[in-house]
Design goal:
Rossmann fold; 3-stranded parallel β-sheet; mainly alpha
């Protein structure tokens, strides 16, 4: 069974508070990969950086992308649960129109206050060691996520 590395782990390693090589070495022969969305997140972090920090992040991300496979989970967002196909008609971006629709549906129209940020992960719970047995796919061999297998059907 393989494992995917979360972006929070990579950020912690890039900041120098976690030795990613040691963490990966501790996993032995287990296949390790990045989800495509994780690769996009860390590339976005490079894009937002400037100066020397950008150069450092760029080198770190390039090394990761060279060493780890990227797993893409293809999802058909237009597949309907009824078996049919949804059609994309338009996007609604005009704030007054969006608010009117939300009010009509009885949904909140105000932007919620952001929740406080989570603290950074701590070393024992990083990436692979999930308390309480872990998420589906990591703790149960019958539902294990295999990196070499096709994604499950929708």
């Amino acid at each position: 069974m393989g494992a995917l590395i979360d972006a929070s782990v990579l950020v912690t390693a890039e900041r120098g508070t976690l030795d990613l090589d040691d963490l990966l070495a501790a996993r032995g022969d287990q296949e390790i990969a990045l989800a495509a969305i994780t690769a996009a997140e860390i590339l976005h972090g490079v894009h937002r950086s400037t100066g020397r920090r950008r150069l450092k992040r760029e080198a770190f991300v390039e090394r990761l992308l060279e060493q780890l496979p990227i797993v893409s989970f293809e999802i058909d967002v237009l597949a309907c649960a009824c078996g049919g196909r949804l059609r994309f008609i338009a996007t609604i971006e005009d704030p007054p129109v969006v608010q009117r629709i939300l009010r009509h549906l009885g949904l909140p129209t105000a932007i919620p206050e952001p929740a406080p940020a989570r603290p950074p992960p701590t070393a024992p719970a990083l990436a692979f060691d999930f308390p309480g047995g872990g998420p589906v796919g990591f703790s149960n061999p019958d539902t294990a996520v295999r990196l070499d297998a096709a994604p499950p059907p929708l």
